[in-house]
Amino acid sequence: MLNTTSVAGIIAGRDPFEYSSSSPYTLFFFQAIVIIVFAELLYVPLRRLKQPKVIAEVIGGILLGPSAIGKIPGFTKTVFPDASIPGLTLMANVGVCLLLFIVGCEVDLHFIKKHMRVALSVGIFNMAVPFGLGCLISIGLWKDYRETVEPHIKFTTFLVFVAVAMCITAFPVLARILTQLKLVKDRVGVIVLAAGVTNDLLGWVLLALCVTLANSSKPETTGYIVLVALGWMLFVIFPVRWTLRWFLFNVVKDIDNHSGPSQLSTLVILCTALLSAFFTDIIGVHAIFGAFVVGTIVPRENDYVARLAARIEDLVYVMLIPLYFALAGLNVNLGLLSQGRDWGYIIGIISLAMVGKIGGGFIAAKFNGLYSRESVAVGVLMSCKGIVEIVVLKTGLSASIITPKLYSMFIVMALATTVFTTPLTLLVYPESYRQNVQKWLKNREFAERISIQDSDKGDKGSVREVGGSLEVSQVPDVTLQTFDEFSIPKIIFSITNTESVSNAMVFIERVCQVSNGGRGTSVHALYIKQLTERISDLILASNYTATANEVGKHKLNATLSILKIFCGFKNVDFSSEIRFVSSDEHSVFAGLSGEDFDVSALLLHFVHQKKFLDLLVDSDGLIDSLRALKSGTGSHIGVFVNNNQEDNNQDAGDEDATDDSSLFSTQTILNPESFQLTTITLVLNFSGAPRLSVTDLVALKLLLRLAASERIELASIMVNAANCPTEEIDALKWVTKGLTEVNLLLCTETGEFEAFIDSNSPSFSGISNLVLVSSNEAHDEMKFVEESIRRNSKLLVLYQ
Description:
alpha/beta, 3 domains, 10-stranded mixed sheet, two-stranded antiparallel ribbon, elongated
């Protein structure tokens, strides 16, 4: 009688947990679900601690293995029977080959060339010190754990492998940590990225050498394998790369295809990666090396490599890679580490790995001119192991270079060093110290500049030494008497969505573009993009960092390209920048701080009405955020709110005032009438000050620029002049003299201005299309700002 139990369902009496070679996928599906869900649950608390996901995946494997849940009778035999492991391993190895292909895509050879001295000095020296320490500790590990264990290998093979395991740096995890800690553009981040790429390249070459030594019994065979592997690498880097670029640029013309690589292009690239993996595997080098090399040759123009990674990363990172790292954890048996000597070696391995990486990074970074704490931060960041270390150890275990006990010891080291990286970096290189470093560097640059100037042509700023560092005082002395000479040299626009572009265009046309030979205002567009956990975002971030400081180059996306073209039509100088913020940053001002901003520039941030009203609920928190932003940029801060009202006469509190059914309100770039400004009101409050502040003058300059537009019917300046000196009032009258379109309203009586800003005042309702407020962050003015948002079409608040 024919037995159909293996293909029948549970209704026919089949045990779904019984492994069947004719349908191995049945148990595989359940194993994959258990591994993936378990890792995701573990990642929830670890994510709050800013730990990489690989930690959760490996710990999940350890807990599912013989160290914890595997001790439950029948669990391993039922869920992970020995017969099912080859199939699970097959899928995991396919995933790790694709992972190494993506890791290769992250390697920017142009970035290495640009920072060659740093990449070589820090990268090589940071590997050399822990490599030497690894050679030392390998002597004891060999005698106590490997010398008498089958299969026998040469001590040199074991020595090289242990040294490589000690000196490796996980570039993918490192790049994400740098982005989370906002260090990508910091000089520490630039050095670490350059050195990390070099470390990554050398690490895989050394790992290939280890596997070669393990797979060959004769010295001449080892030499042949190394030569063939080197020849294949050169063949891929040159002829294959040239052919691939010719195919993508000239045959399929896929580089400029912003909708993503075509199926044909993806097929050709992935088949090339698999072919390279096949070749390196059959010559005695691991398959992951071949996939990695192909990843480095994918074109980076127009972010093509990021778009390719976006096509394949979800399958790799969501489905396949958790299987690989879970298998790595399943092979860990903490029960084998039962002696005090074992844990003594573990502590020694962790200590030497950390000391070697930190010490090597510190010395090399100091050689490149960094401060001491910056140099320590470089070493700490380079000590991150993560994904790459796990792959190295798993490869060593598969090649029988290390035993299961040694494997478990090194896995503990890999987890510990990766977990320590983020908190140690925050400890030795906190945000406050970073800001001080930026100030010291700017002050040093300024001091060097003025030191070569003649005294009669010198800058009006003064330089003095404070606490061992230079401090520069260069605050412009601007008053109403010198108002004609005052200008806004640059406006920095914060761009987060399409409506931000619409708002920016209004200011570019009516403020930045100046006719009749006047001095124009340049534009710097700052595009804020939230960094997700997708590796394609990480590649984009590294791409933008690689060319961020190149003269004459701007990183553009479709949104910034619109502004660039518009500025070109208006003859306005344009520059741009893309900044990535971590997904756990929820502040409305996230990504705006920057020590490289001009102290005289105006930073305009566009905020939706509802979001800003929510911020005003906690006025103390908003004031603290604004002060921190002011301190972090040094520029004038402006917040622009567009109520997106369909009818300017309609009260903003009316539920029908906005169109919630559409992604875009009725007043967007799609509606040419949405930004018609006919009336403007500027509100200035002296608040007992002897004269108008610089921020007040910036607001006044904006009003006069806007009032010069032919479309403006009336521009009003409401001034609390009750406590204002007479000379300031006279100067203000002189500035607005002859401007028929500007109406100056002076509240000279005590309480008159307060009555004006009272929300119950009839004159307050519907003041203007646009209200400009120069605020000193007082709570009564916050109340006025809130009412202005509710009752007017648009509001621009400049904070002092």
